[in-house]
Amino acid sequence: MVRCMTMTRPRLVVFGIVGNMPVAGVTWQFLHFLEGLRRLGCDVAYVEDTGTWPYDPARNTVTDDCRYAVRYLAEVMAQHGFADRWAYRAATPGGGTFGMAESRVHRLLAEADALINVTGSTVLRDEHRAVPVRIYLETDPVLPQIEVARGNPASIEILEAHTHHFSYGENLGRPDCGVPVGRFVYRPTRQPIVIDWWTAPVASAPPRFTTIANWRQSG
Fold first, then answer.
1. Could you tell me the end-to-end alpha-carbon distance of the chain, in angstroms, rounded to an integer?
2. What strand order describes the sheet that includes 97-99?
3. Are the C-beta atoms of residues 48 and 15 closer than 8 Å to each other?
4. Residue 98 pairs with which residues in a beta bridge?
5. φ, ψ for residue 126, nearest 5 deg
């Protein structure tokens, strides 16, 4: 069956890690993608299908218990208008799909015009590869390019599963950039920002931008 992308309301699925890494910066990053695509007129849904165990910040550990991840996702998505547009596929004992029903997730993927694998968090399986346009959106460049240049088969397979490759590394492929990119063509992109979400905390205060960061990073 040949599918053509609709010109009126593209159907997009965003893959991510909001439940698996339920911290403010990650959540904020993905919400901007979802809201930005919706405001552009896309029919967008969020699916988490990484096949990995989630991090539970309440216990400060990676765990086979996905209850925190599911509760967190449900709350965040409901707060931002995506209450019926998210799904979490558990990689924990017993598995299961939360949010949207499993049958609906299957239908979403079968009918999607494109998927956007933000952070490259999901290793695409056959069900995902059936989507005609599969976008690898890289937020942490350099290491993946080095791994490909070294011939790492896992890294190459992950990238080859996608039809298009985007990166926050805007200089990739330029003459003055030493990062090796011979095997894949990367298009530059930037984090979408929903401007009206960034308001001054007090009406009388001058407009300002803040950042969410951690000065110390292990690993």
1. 45
2. 97-99, 86-89, 43-48, 11-15, 114-118, 133-138, 164-167, 187-188
3. yes
4. 88
5. -55, -40
Paired tokens of 83: 């209450």
- Reduced to 3 states (helix: H, G, I; strand: E, B; else coil), residue 135 is strand
Residues 51 and 153 sit within 8 Å (Cβ to Cβ): no
Neighbours of 46 (CB within 10 A): 26
Which phi and psi angles does 79 have, rounded to 5°? -65, -25
What the block records as the tokens of 179 is 């990062």
Q: How many CA atoms lie within 13 A of 178 on its CB side?
A: 0
- Note the pLDDT tens digit of each residue in 158-192: 999 999 999 999 999 999 999 999 899 999 999 99
